[in-house]
Every structure is written in C-alpha cells, then in structure tokens.
Amino acid sequence: MKKVKIALLGLGNVGRGVYIILHQNKEEIMKRSGYEIEISKILVRDLNKNRGVEVPEDILTTDFEEILNDDSIKLVVEVMGGIEPAREYMLRAMEAKKHIVTANKMLLATEGDEVFEKAEEMGVMFQYEASVAGGIPIINGINENLTANKVNELYGIVNGTTNYILSKMELEQLDFDSVLQEAKEKGYAEADPTSDIEGYDAQYKLAILASLAFGTKVDINDVYREGITKIKPIDMKYASDFGMSIKLLAIAKDDNGRIELRVHPTMIPETHPLANVYDSFNAIFINGNAVGDLMFYGRGAGDLPTGSAVVSDIISILRKNIEVENQNPIIRNNLWEKQVKNIDEVESRYYIRVTVEDKPGVLGQITTIFGSNRVSLKSVIQKGRKNDESHEVALVLITHKTKEALINDSIEKLYDLRTVKDIENIIRIEDFN
Amino acid sequence: MKKVKIALLGLGNVGRGVYIILHQNKEEIMKRSGYEIEISKILVRDLNKNRGVEVPEDILTTDFEEILNDDSIKLVVEVMGGIEPAREYMLRAMEAKKHIVTANKMLLATEGDEVFEKAEEMGVMFQYEASVAGGIPIINGINENLTANKVNELYGIVNGTTNYILSKMELEQLDFDSVLQEAKEKGYAEADPTSDIEGYDAQYKLAILASLAFGTKVDINDVYREGITKIKPIDMKYASDFGMSIKLLAIAKDDNGRIELRVHPTMIPETHPLANVYDSFNAIFINGNAVGDLMFYGRGAGDLPTGSAVVSDIISILRKNIEVENQNPIIRNNLWEKQVKNIDEVESRYYIRVTVEDKPGVLGQITTIFGSNRVSLKSVIQKGRKNDESHEVALVLITHKTKEALINDSIEKLYDLRTVKDIENIIRIEDFN
Ligand SMILES: NC(=O)c1ccc[n+]([C@@H]2O[C@H](COP(=O)([O-])OP(=O)(O)OC[C@H]3O[C@@H](n4cnc5c(N)ncnc54)[C@H](OP(=O)(O)O)[C@@H]3O)[C@@H](O)[C@H]2O)c1
Ligand SMILES: NC(=O)c1ccc[n+]([C@@H]2O[C@H](COP(=O)([O-])OP(=O)(O)OC[C@H]3O[C@@H](n4cnc5c(N)ncnc54)[C@H](OP(=O)(O)O)[C@@H]3O)[C@@H](O)[C@H]2O)c1
C-alpha cells in the first residue's frame, strides 16, 4: 500500500470530522484511494484545548512553517476558516507544490479567483466540495455531472440554521425570537447568529454556486440579500392558507445571459420538493436545459457530513496521480461574462401584508395605487380586525408577476395614504415556472 | 480548439437526446470540455426511419465495422441497449483503444465485470452514469463523492413508470389497470410493461447501485423482486389512513458485511422525502456513516435527461487526457466480499390485509397464530363488511418489526383457518431507522 502524508489547518468542527472519518473509515479509504493516509501535522491556535478527539500531542502545531517546509506533506486540508491567514497559507502551500482541499466558503466567495489561479499556475489540484452545503456533493455535481447543460435556474436552501428556525416556526407556530433562542441553546445557531439569520452565509454560498453553474465570475456584492428576522407567525399562517411554505432561498437565474442573484425569504408551493426540506437539512434544486429538474438534499453542516465532503475530495486527489502536475479540472468561472440584474429588474409575484384603517374606501385606494403602477393583484384578502379598539384591519395582497421596481413604487405611494397604518411585510413568491 | 470524433451506437430515445444536446449546447460543451465534438458515425438498424432529428444521411450506418476500423474515432457512445450485440461491440471498441460511454443497465447488471475488466486491461476510460436513474448523477455521486463513507443503506425510486402509476393511484384514487392503460397511451409505459411493473428494471438498477455503494460484486439473481400489480386502491387508502405512501423501492442495506437486496412495493411514512417523489420522477436516498442522510432527485428517463448524463460522461472523458492510457478511476465492485441475506432473513414491519368471516372468535384465532410465531402485532383494524351478504370483513394487521420467515410461516397457518377467506395483500413497511 502506498503511503501519503497530509496536514490539516484547523481542528475545529470540520477538522474533527475529517480526523474521525480518516480513522474510522480507514479501510474503506485505503481501498478506494489506493493510499494509506497519515495526518502528520495539524495546525491550531491553542495546543491545550479539548477537541473531543484524542490526537497524539506531537502532531499538533501552532507553526504553519513546520507544515510548509515539510516536503513529505503532499496535501493540505484548510479547515480553519476566515480570510486571513487561510488565504496566505493556501497560496504558500500551493507554491510549495502541495495539493489543497478546503471548506472555506468565505474565502472562495470573495478571493476565489486568486486561489484558483494559483492552483492553475502551480499545477496542483484544488478541491472545495465542502464549502457549500456540507455533505451534499453539489459542487462536483455542477462541475462534473451537469456539464452537458445550460443551467437555467438554481434554488438553494443552503443555510441549516435558518431552515431549522423557519421549519419550527411553520410546524409549531412559534415566533422567530423564541425559536432562535432555542436554536442557540441546542447549538443549531451560533451565539452571534447574524451571518446565518441575515443571509450572509447563504450569500457566500450562492456566489460560489452561481459562479460555477453559469461559468462566470460573481461579485459577492452583486448578490441581493435579505434575512429572515421579519417573518412573523402570522405570515407563516397566511402562507399555509395559500398552500405555501416560507423558506430562505438562494436564487440564481440565467435569463439569456443576464443573471439574477438573490437571497431572501420566499413563499413556495408546499407541493414543491424544496418545501419539504425541513429541520437543518439543505437542498439545492437546479433546472438545466437538458437534465430538467434535479435536486440534491442532505446535511449542509456538522462535523461528519462536512468531513465526508472533505475526505471524498482528498480521495479524489489521491486517485489521480499526485506526482504529476496539471491534473486540475478546467476552472469554469471565467467562461462567460454575464451581466447581473439589479433587484429592481427582478420579476416575481409578491405577498404584501398591510395594516389599514377599517374604513370604507380603503381597499379602493390601495387597488388604485397598484393599478396605476400596472401591478395586477391576484387577490386581496381582508383578515379581520387587529383588535377591537384600534379600528385597524390586516390586508393581505397577492400580486401577479411584476417587476420589483413597480412594487417598490407602489409601496412608497401606499405609505403616503393616511389610511395605511403600516406595511408589515413583503415576501416574494416563487412559482418555479 | 481541439477536435475529437465520436460515434454513437443507436439513435433511439437516448441517442436522439445525445444528438440534440451535442448540437444545442455546443458552445457550453466546447468551453467545458476543451473540444469541438464531431459525431462522425451513428450505428442504426434502419437507415430510413424517421428519428425526430435531422441527421446528415452519410453519418448513419448499419455496419459497426465502419466505426470500429476508423482510428480517428476516439470515443464510442453505446445507446442501443440489450446484451448482444452491445456487449460484443463495446468489447471490440475497447480493444481498438476507444473510450466508452454507455447507458446500458441490463448489460452492466449482468455482464458488467467483463466490460469493466476489459476497460482496465485496455487502459481506456469507461463511463456509465446514464445506466441508472437517467439524468440523476447517482453513479458518480457514489463513485466519486461518497468515497469517505461506509454506505449503510440505499433506497431508490428508480423506475419512473411505476412511480407514475403509484402516484396516480394515490393522488386520484384510481385502480392499477386504468392507470396503466393511461400511462401506455401517454407513452409513460411501454406496450409490454412487464419489465417496469414487475420490478425487473429496478432490479437491474439496484444491482448496479448496490455493487458500487458496497464495493462488492452483486449477482442480479440475489436481488429479491416483487412488482406493483397487486396494489389496490384500498391499500393506498389504508396506507394513507396510517400516514403512509406506497412506493416501489429498491432497497440495499449493509448489516455488518451481510447485505440485503430487494425490490418491492413499500409503505413509507408520508413525511419521508421519498414519499414526496411523485409522477415519473426518480430519487435515491442514501445513508452513509459520515454524510448521514442524502437524497438525489430528478428525471430518471427521457431523451434529454438521459442524454445529459451521457454527454456529461463524454465531457468528463475529454477533460482527462484522451491520448494517455490508464486514466480509469479504480473499479470498486470487487473491494469486499459480502454475503447476501435471503429474503427470509430480512426484518421489516408488515401490513397484512385479509378477508375473514364475520364471526366471533376469528380475531382471536388470528392473533394466536401470530403470537405463537413470535410476531407481535402493532394494530389490528377491522374495516367493516365487504358486502352485506357475504358476511365477510376486511382486517388490516400491522406488525412490529419481525423476520420475514416468521411472517411467511404465520401466513401459511392463516390459510389453514377456515374463517380466513383470503390473504389479500402483504406489503412491507419501512421506517428508515
Ligand atoms: N462547521 C460546519 O458545519 C461547516 C460546514 C461547511 C463548511 N465549513 C467551513 O469549514 C471551515 C472550518 O469551520 P469550523 O466550523 O470547523 O470552524 P471552527 O470550529 O471555528 O474551527 C477552526 C479551527 O481552525 C483553527 N484556527 C483558526 N484560525 C487559526 C489560526 N490563525 N492559526 C491556527 N489555527 C487556526 C482553530 O484553532 P483552535 O481550535 O486552536 O482555536 C480551530 O481548530 C470554515 O471555513 C467554515 O466555513 C464549516
Ligand atoms: N429511454 C430512456 O429514457 C433510458 C434511460 C436510461 C437508460 N436507457 C438505456 O439506454 C439504452 C438505449 O435506450 P433507448 O430508449 O434509447 O432505446 P431505443 O429507443 O430502443 O433505441 C435503440 C437504438 O439502437 C439501435 N439498435 C438496436 N439494436 C441495434 C443493432 N443490433 N444494430 C444497430 N442498431 C441497433 C436502434 O436502431 P433503429 O432505430 O434503427 O431500430 C435504435 O436507434 C438502453 O440500454 C436503455 O436501457 C434508456
């Protein structure tokens, strides 16, 4: 059996998963890769931390140079996260002709080009399956198995924390704050959950997925982003009345070379496969012009699921000839230049929940505003008094498909009406056609 | 741009899909493969058939030797189906150092070893993504992206025709015969639907999937098989009362090196992701010891979806260096030897529907038989008279988990009871835990 030495940068959640899998599934991995893998060094910050796995003390190090300068280490697994020093370490490892596996979405979504180019320049292999949707093989799915397709649309539930929260809100009629609190206690949400609940995490992931699916460079700032904090139990209830679920979707569409990139809460038909993705599961739904509809579903995070992707990446590098240069697959994010639509140009149906004075003529005023903006309403539902003293009622408007700019304009005019007390929520509706 | 010549064997459904995709997505395919692909020959039986695509006449041939002897043809796409002459043609093409892409499940499930070995021997690349579940990248998913895992279980809805029929029966309360008739008219079922409705097609596919997932050789005859023809609307209704759906599942489990392989109608909880796979869609649900639960969902048949898999396989071959030998991935179906359980040894819960005489004491007789066989019943539900004159009632029994042998033995004894008029149906229940 051939032997190969590798190093890990980081031994947190993902690093632990990688460590466990390499030991627990040693026989499978040897047979499938043709190599006995030895983890010869692991970079950490704190040598004394309890890591939930027993690691021989002498392989932990706080000094990256030890890894860099060890020529017997052929492959480096970056699972430390963040931009720096992860970026610097990867670039230098590649310069030292080491192959790289990474799980770092933030880096790939922002500084991806630089590392791709360095891998190309140095002729080393570079794999990053774990960077999006953890254990789900969506990166290789797009890069290797959908290559015959023009991808038309991609819809992802790519953040487990927010899907857990929305699922709980939907299934148990709970409010956002209490579910978030519980999620924190159970470890499903971080102490500072901003990156998840405000959609930043999904934004990174969408930038990576869209860039690969469309073969174009994507600037993270071109991805429109909205989080889930404004979703109320009452929105969940109305959605359910309409036969809909609310999910935080990462959406990318290619409209004849002009692309849409957006992350926001979305009402989707409850019969759609994505609507049945509950709990902290992730799923990516793709429409390709040859394959039609395709969905990948699984665990988007966690030590072992994410480790599964990392270790499968390691195996895929080892199966190629690691001694031969330039075995990289073609980098595909600079094949086409595509223009990104502004969110104003996006077309969608909309759910709009407003509180208005319970007076005759209010409905007429509102429908007139939408009408004058060429927004046609599919339904206007009066949902009863808010409470008896206020003389306010809730109205739920569902529009036909229309440009977002026209919605925004209508909303501004609604605010001018004295009878409109508040625009409580606006949620985009996706019909998948 | 580099150029490469390929040949197709067959221009039926899949061949047409491949032809269309290679033309329609030419630019995508060029950029992603690095090659301009020319289809220089297509083997058919009938030169004059209308094929739904316009093909230059001079590339059609009925003579395989023309393809074999043309050294400029580097890659052969086998989409003719059947064992012979497909087997012979592939072996000879490989001997002539041509790379192969095939969609032929029947051949792979029965004579797979021979073609794998020939590919290895000749150092040519061999891809077969389209052979199972059409456009869904499940073969590469298992072979490339789940390699870090020990696969514990695999459950597939891998036959579109039967899933279409069962979906219609479930959603529209129709009976099997009328849905089958309609499916034939719509082209969802073949004139002779035996291979689909009796589970043979799923049996082939399971043999291939299990062999790859478990890294072991699978004899097609070791796959237990039952079709869907016995499913009645009343079974669908009872299933629904219990919160279950009925699907034709292809099931493979690895129980510490002893494996189960079976295709049969199965009741599954309606909350399970597989229960929401409707219409002619396919899905494969896998549990790996690292990745956890994972599901792939999409189109399992059709010209373009299947063509998508074939063309992506072509691209993946072209991306490697087609001039260099021995770039095959390691063949993984001979890594372990596993023993296959007999269906008698399988453990499951069971739904048993019987018609009995409406007499006092009958229930007692029946429960005594199960009890004496150590089969414990979870529920026994009497479903009212069949009709008023017969004095017969329907009983539905749901068992706890038990060995199939004990069920069979109990059923035999039931037949001996004079009060038992008929055992109408027995359906295995899968709880996924
Ligand atoms: N967690 C998931 O489920 C998941 C899923 C998909 C992708 N990812 C990605 O995987 C990466 C790792 O995530 P994680 O959850 O495992 O993170 P984590 O638990 O915070 O672990 C980070 C590890 O890196 C080490 N580290 C960080 N900065 C370092 C530095 N400057 N020098 C040396 N060591 C350093 C830490 O050392 P100490 O332990 O000594 O502090 C720790 O062991 C991130 O890019 C993340 O986005 C994570
Ligand atoms: N259909 C699907 O959706 C699907 C999905 C996944 C996998 N597959 C697999 O793909 C393969 C092809 O399926 P298909 O549906 O495309 O079959 P098909 O429509 O029956 O087409 C078969 C083609 O092969 C040609 N052919 C057959 N035997 C031949 C022979 N002895 N010499 C020369 N040409 C011959 C036929 O020529 P003529 O046209 O002249 O008769 C025809 O063009 C099969 O292995 C099938 O299992 C099919």
UniProtKB/TrEMBL annotation, chains A, B:
CDD domains: ACT_HSDH-Hom (cd04881)
Enzyme class: oxidoreductase
Lineage: superkingdom: Bacteria
Pathway recorded for this protein: Amino-acid biosynthesis; L-threonine biosynthesis; L-threonine from L-aspartate: step 3/5; Amino-acid biosynthesis; L-methionine biosynthesis via de novo pathway; L-homoserine from L-aspartate: step 3/3
Domain called ACT: residue spans: 351-428
Entry keywords, A to Z: Amino-acid biosynthesis, Methionine biosynthesis, NADP, Oxidoreductase, Threonine biosynthesis
EC number: 1.1.1.3
Catalytic activity entry: L-homoserine + NADP(+) = L-aspartate 4-semialdehyde + NADPH + H(+)
Co-factor requirement: a metal cation
Family: Belongs to the homoserine dehydrogenase family.
NCBIfam families in the record: PRK06349.1
Protein name per the record: Homoserine dehydrogenase
Originating species: Clostridium saudiense
